[in-house]
Fold:
Amino acid sequence: MENRSTTAHGQWLPASAHAHTRTTARSPTFGVEEEFFVVDPRTRRILSRAPELLSRTRMPDERLSGEFSRVQVEANSPVCETADDALRFLRAARGELARSADEAGLAVAATGTAVIGDTSAALVSEGPRYADIAAHAGGLRTSHIVCGCHVHVGIPDRETAVAVSDHLRRWLPFLVALSANSPFHAGVDTGYASWRSITWNRLPSAGPPPMLRSLAEHERAVRALSSAGAILDRHMVYWDVRLSDHLPTLEIRVGDVAATAEEALLFSVLTRGLATRALADVHHGRPAPEITDQTLRAAMWRAARDGLEGSVPDPLTGECLPGAYALERLWNAALPGLSANGDADLVSALLDRAREAGTGAARQRSAYARRGYLTDVVDHVVRGTREGL
Structure:
């Protein structure tokens, strides 16, 4: 599992990543969205200058774009069939953002929350929709000013997508712990590995999806959110797993933005593996495990607090697993799907690297512990965004 090679960019990557140029006929396609903060490389504070940075990029607008606030930018991959497809885009997008930021005297940082700076002072991006969302959110406006990693997995129809969502609920705490990359916010250590998860879940339509069981039940749940005024429209259903209204995909939104391109690759390919396993379970008529909303929320809270450095609850069994055991359970769950997609060796090697390096949250805290300077944390994050592991 330790077969590694060095790429032309000098970044570590398992050699197996370059071996998988094809997937099986049953492999679902996938796509990745990543959000980043724009920061001042001198003060290390977030800056509302995303439009200036984006004006200098050479990628199409549909690939690099703005977000809710002007302190954020977003990278949107094309439809990917293989891990190679995803990695090429992840590296190219981060490289282009870094180049454009340099040109503008800025930097980009892959962290789930702003390490230094006041998110309440961040300017909302132009456009009537963002203005409407900000007005609707009121004091919760800053809950939108976080950076996540969203994975879209191709699903043949909406009824199947609901069934896959039900199967994926069990694994959401594990994915929160694996992706934890936001311990600091506005100059303080929050005490959580993923503060993004906590602040984002304050929104009334966010958090783990309910157990839905059918497309009709899904529609009833969305109508209930709308009737209560919790959403302005269907696009504001922010569940950690949600159906797309305009694409044949299921969107898994539970992760912090990954610290590096390699970790974004791990998260996205592993998520596709879990979805592929769930598709097979649905096809064979295997029911999704019954987990109450309260149990799942509690497990996700603990996973957000501890990350892999503490305990990760399994919401089905009630066990609190040490991080290493949680990764093993997640790996075993995804393995049938990873094998079907030709990604098992790649993910095995990337998980080895994740165990060795620690989560993004743990590395941010290590950067702070050396001298006690939050500026060191931002410098560490900016380097990882640009250079990888």
Observations:
- Confidence is low (pLDDT under 50) at residues 1-24.
- The longest strand covers residues 30-39.
- The longest helix spans residues 261-283.
- The two ends are 17 Å apart (CA to CA).
